[in-house]
Amino acid sequence: MKGIILSEFVDFLEQSVGENTAQKIIDDSRVASEGAYSRVGQYDYHELIQLLTQSVAETEQQAEVLLQGFADHMFKVFKRDYDVFFEGTENAIDMLMQIDNHIHVEVLKLYPDAELPKFDYTLEDGQLTLHYESPRPFAQVAYALVGACLKYFGDKEELVSSELADDMKSATFVVATA
Amino acid sequence: MTDELKQQLALTNARAARLKKARLEAERLLEEKSRELFAANQQLESIQQNLQQDIKQATYELSVTNARLQSALDGKSAFLGQMSHEVRTPLNAIIGLSEILLGTKLDDAQYDYMSTINTGAKSMIVLIDDLLDITKIEAGRVDIRPETVDLYDLLRNINGMFELSAKQKSLQLDLQIENTVPRTISIDVGRYTQIINNLISNAIKNTHKGRVFVQASFKADAGNVANGALVTKVVDTGVGIEADQLERIFDAYEQIGQPGQGAGLGLSICRQLCDLMNGKISCESIPGRGSIFRVELPVKLMTSTDLQATAQARAPLPSLPPLKILVAEDNPTNQKVLTAQLAQLGQTPDMVNNGAEAMEKINQQEYDVVILDIQMPVMTGEEALRAIRESDPPISSHYCIALTASSYQNQKARLLRLGFDEFLSKPLAIDKLAEALENVPESLSMGQLEESSFIDWDTVTNSLEEGVFGYLSFLKSQFGDAHRTIFKEIAPVFLDHNYRELKQLIEYAQARETEKIRSISHSMKGAASSLGLNDLANILLRIENKPEAEDVSAKVAEVKIYMDRLKPIMEKELAQCIAEE
Fold first, then answer.
1. Which residue among B11, B21, B23 sits closest to A20, beta carbon to beta carbon?
2. Nearest residue of chain B to residue A25 (CA atoms)
């Protein structure tokens, strides 16, 4: 997993629960890297699960709520650091359609070893069906990110339906203009 | 310190350690990435170098191919030139001999056949010219030369050329010139004729029933009354052209219609010529119904005075004084043609087979004109010319005309530079030949002169009788009964003036003032010619032509001897004339 996800998760934790609590979560989660994440590094994705689990335990918040907070945070970071991908996109459907055939293409140029999830889509009558598929069980993260995307673009579209596979390695989201 | 504080400190320390570790990790990754970048950069550079090498190699290979193609093209051009030369030689014979036969007594049918042979051979020349034209046009070597012409006559002549072929196919061939069309215009006649010929010839070829119709109209230029556009339409009721082929008919090497019906160059030449003349050509057609080819060319309106000036340049054959002509030509047919053509101009040439034989003849006697074919066995025309020019005078000063079947214009400039006085190309039209002979300087007629001496003094001294210098008979031929009166007027002036000029000439010759020698001998020559004193004029011309020659003083001395002998005879004549009154 790319370091940026993990380092931003730590940033998110520090911002939402404070530096010391965040450190405690890291220490208690016993992640192999000791939470010393570099954005450009590559880490075991289990560390995110460990950190999330420990955060839930420490803050007594629901995982979904935490993840949604993290996803909103990520979206702000994306906008701040990778504004180029926002150029010409006016709504969430535009943005979601760009993931596979633009954003991930560029990511792979910089990091040929990145293991990226797939985001296939079909667009019919203004309704977007987005299919998430990954070797890792992060359908919930994807769900949160789709939600963050909708929110970022002012909730002009809504999530009509979402289906997350039991193993969390795939999901289908249907987004339509509100 | 409380436990809580201790715990907070531990967390802060842990956080600091974590951040430091993250930083170190980031630096390590950065360095790794830098190395990767460096390696990638190296690889790129090497790829670039390989690419440059590849480009160099490809460029080299292309230039070699290009050179090979260019040489193949040059070869093709040379081959075309050579072929056209080979084909022109027999055609020259056909055109020349048929022209001569046309001038003899023939019954109507024979005259028709002979005209057809003549026209046919001329069309073949056109075909060959087409081939050369397309090569020249494509190489950008064609000039447009407008001249003043009677358009009505021109169109009638063009149409007339096709009457026979139309008749043979039972086609009606009509010409209609709208009355707005100006009669006298300026246009490149050769190119215009070529375009319209081509279109009519195609129309007849592709029409099996009905008519071919040539129509000329005129679009006046609103801004300038002296300009306008000549629109010539060639309409036929022939097979027509399919819509999908219409776009391609003006492309080079496209063959439209049935196979075997022409070289396919005609329409391409027409289009390229129209472009060169700033005009346009277009075609409308309905398959099975017929075609309309439309040519629009900008023209200048001229007056009939302009036309007369042009017409005078094409006057009937001039009557030439008898000239001593030597012709070197290896081809027996061409010899025959040239002999016949010269006979029409009242000339009897000496005919030899090559340059070497020509040199032999020239060394035996002097000629007024030497016509040298360029391509001859044993000794070529160029070699002969060089031998002539390198000889001593008077041999070196022969008037030499180059005769060549090569159609390349640059030949002309080259041959003139080489030392030829004139250039004629085959097929040789009789009027061109006449024009060239007319341009031979008259006073170069040296028939009466022996090669070793300028004047046959023995004859002069042996009969110091009236008329030995020929001036009286010359004046008689010019002025008839008045010649004695004229002589009386002219002779004293001539003697007085020429002696004064002779005195100056002798001085200038001693001082070797070439420009002055030239101008004074020129003036004296004119006076001598007007009295018919050709021998004297000849010596003076030689002086004028080569004032820097070593023997100029010797020639001037000859002039003095001549004058000294002439003077008493002329004075005696003069006294007689006065006494007779």
1. B11
2. B11
Q: How distant is the Cα of B279 from the closest Cα of chain A, in angstroms?
A: 52
Q: At the fourth CATH level, which superfamily is domain A88-177?
A: H-NOX domain (3.90.1520.10)
pLDDT digits (tens, 9 = 90+) for B131-189: 777 777 766 667 788 888 889 888 988 888 888 888 888 999 999 988 888 888 999 98
Q: How would you label A86-118 residue by residue, b for 16+ Cβ within 10 Å and e otherwise?
A: eeebebbbebbbbbbeebbeeeeeeeeeeeebe
Answer whether CATH 1.10.10 is correct for domain B460-580.
no
Considering only CB atoms, which chain A residues are within 8 Å of B14?
23, 26-27
Distance (Å, whole) CA B469 – CA B447: 15
By Cβ distance, the residue of A27, A39, A41 closest to B14 is: A27
Comparing alpha-carbon positions, the chain B residue that sits nearest to A11 is B19
Question: Which fold, B325-440?
Answer: Rossmann fold (3.40.50)
Most B CBs within 10 A among A11, A15, A20, A31, hence the mutation to make, goes to A20
Residues B125/B73, Cβ–Cβ less than 8 Å: no
SS3 A131: strand
User: B142 CB contacts (<8 Å, ≥6 apart)?
Assistant: B133, B136, B273, B276
Record the pTM. 0.39
CATH code of domain B143-311: 3.30.565.10
